[in-house]
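Run: sequence + magnesium ion -> complex structure.
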Amino acid sequence: MRTIMTLNQKGGCGKSTIATNLASYFATHGKSVAVVDLDPQGCCIEWLKARPEDRPTIHGVVGWKGDPKIPKDVDVVIYDAPAGAHGKDLTAMLRKVQSAIIPVMPSPIDMRACAHFIQDILTVGRVSRDEVKLAVVANRVRENTLVYQHLEHFLKALDIPFIATLRDTQNYIRAVERGLGIFEMAPSAVEQDLEQWQSLTRWVNGKRSMPA
Ligand SMILES: Nc1ncnc2c1ncn2[C@@H]1O[C@H](COP(=O)(O)OP(=O)(O)OP(=O)(O)O)[C@@H](O)[C@H]1O
Ligand SMILES: [Mg+2]
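>> structure
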């Protein structure tokens, strides 16, 4: 079973957006998918309520009330972590997964917080890089802005794979409202976004995202 988590202590950086779109990606590629919503806000569960019946089924699992009941026969489980998770809770969550994706937005405060967060996971949390493969995604990016150049530079300097840059676009908002991912939208509208996701899905499907 493939297990992936989206996380960052910082709120609103795109954890749920990446979780729902990853779920949509796998579901539209023939996989049986469950999303475990670890956040009492229940964004992923709400997203699934809006999902049209004619789309590939994605199982929604409430994960914020004790041990989540994950269907046995799923191929992929995506965990969407809440903002603010840290310490023992975070470590316990992270140990459940093979890969973890950390979205970060291009602001100096967010970048600094992200660096601390990653350091915390690796040192205080003692999550070993062999145990859980971490990667960073730049989210809500407006290219050609100075702050983006800083972000790119900062992410490359972290010793964590920087696997994708996702632009700031209403497409994600339109998709979430309809219970879909960008993989299920009219291709002409999301061409650039599909292209940006290629490096993310390449990492997720490749050996580098799997513990040895
Ligand atoms: N690339 C993007 N372009 C435009 N809007 C985006 C993008 N990524 C996320 N958003 C929007 O930003 C808001 C926050 O995103 P999201 O809910 O994914 O963040 P989060 O990290 O899960 O937040 P929380 O910490 O509250 O769980 C949402 O309204 C989402 O639709
Ligand atoms: Mg969220």
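>> summary
The chain has a mean pLDDT of 93. The chain has one domain: 2-204.
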